[in-house]
């Protein structure tokens, strides 16, 4: 095979494996950010309580436990709202391999809604904080590439635990916005034994 043809075959196989196999991909939703959103309230360490996630969205997180995100403003963020998001977890068990990926939030407009990117060659996704309180947040990210939509709904807490009633309230809110277009199951993130 010619080198360029080999690259095309490899890229095609990778895309087929990474993208969800759906016939009627419904595209991303455009929910409003939380009414009380401010950047300073979102900055800091969050523990993932659970998630609803398509296969493509789960590429990094599929084996993750002890998952956290740490949101920090980038320089000049007072003007633009740009931030870094360090996604960290352990692979399969609290003692498993440490995994991380740092994304960049940019082009904030309105407050609480950004574009998130992980590498210059990867398409950016929409990233929106749909609910925010001092103790919890709900983040929705979504992107469509080559006609395939991948999305995630992350339930976050400032502590590694959250009352089941709060979690259910946040899931019900996200569902009421029509964000779980593929009717995927909620998966609780293991946080026991992590800290």
UniProtKB/TrEMBL annotation:
Residues 40-188 form the Lipocalin/cytosolic fatty-acid binding domain. The keyword Signal applies. Pfam families: Lipocalin_2 (PF08212). Residues 1-25 form the signal peptide. Keywords: Lipid-binding, Signal. The keyword Secreted does not apply. It comes from the Eukaryota. Belongs to the calycin superfamily. Lipocalin family. This is Apolipoprotein D-like.
